[in-house]
Hints:
By secondary structure, this protein is α+β, with helices and mostly antiparallel strands. Helix content is 64%, strand content 13%.
Amino acid sequence: MASQSKGLAARYALALYELADDQKALDDVAGDLTSLRQLLAESEEFVRLIRSPVLSRADQTKGVAALCDKFGANPLTTKFLGVLASNRRLFALPGIITAYLEELARRRGEVAAEVASAVALSEDEVQAVTDALRKVVGQKVSVNLTVDPSLIGGLIVRVGSRMIDSSLRTKLQRLQFAMKGVG
Length: 183
């Protein structure tokens, strides 16, 4: 089932990419999708809207239209979300967002990096992380930021199959294991 959902998300993402490319709205749609990704991370109500089988197609369509109107989404994004709602495919939105942003990065020659921090990073900190990753990777990097308070401090960075974990949580776990081994 997971592979079917991933294939579905990839097909929808590619269709959205091609439409956005035709309308010269790649960056606008990417910005909208990034905002939606952030909303998915922060709002349980939005997650319920896209996942609930109880809500009718009309209710989901009205909900996403109102949301898009509120944050001033590109008309293409609004129409796309309406199509997802009418086809009962809103559940695939997180995968579609990921697939679209990955396709955009791939076609631009960028490498996608996932950065998790304990607190929200300032613009200067984001720029510093992006610059450091660009030096290490050797090409342009698109950074997806998430906040995970359980990290306590530090960062977890994933670029492709590589992961760098400098979080305080992991350091404390290593210290705890080391102390258990001594006693």
